[in-house]
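Annex B. Sample input.
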Amino acid sequence: MRTLIEQTLRALDDLQQQSKILYPAVSNWAAWQIATALGISAREGLARFELIQPMYNLVRRQGRSRSFPWPLRRSSASSPNSPLGGGLLTGKYATSERPESGRLIDDPRYVSRYSVETDFATADRSTEFAQKLDIKPATLAVAWTMLHPDVTAAIRKPHAARGLPRRPGRRDDQ
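Annex B, continued. Sample output.
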C-alpha cells in the first residue's frame, strides 16, 4: 500500500502546526518526488520540505543525479546521510581483508547495498589516500561529502561519530 504524497504533506503540516516537528524533511527521495512535493506544498499552502537527505558518499552517489539540484533551486538544505557508506569508508573494510562481523557482513540491507567489489576497491583507494594525508579514512569520507557545493551538512549517526573529529578536515583533531 502506498501513501499519497498529498497525505504525507498534510500529516507533516499537521505535525508542524502542533509544534511536534520544526521542519519537514525527506530522506532518499528522487528529485522528481521532491519537486512534486514542493509544488503541492506551494499550491495547497502546506509546510514544505526544508531538508533533503539523499544517500551520498564515495561509493553511493545517488544524491548527485537524483536530488541535489533541488536544494539550491528551491532553498531547501541538503544533508546527505551515510557519508561513511555504512562503515565501508572507515578503513575497517578492504578488498582483501574484512572483519568477521559487522554491519556490512551481518545486516542484509547493508550487504545488498555495499557488496560490489568495486565498492571495496574504492574503500581501499580512499584509505590509502587518507593514510598519505595522515588523516583517518572516516575523516576523509565526511570531508569529501562536504565538498559537494549543494551539501549543507553531512549526517553521521551517533555510533559513527565516536571516531571522528568534531570538524572533519582539521589537522589538529587527528
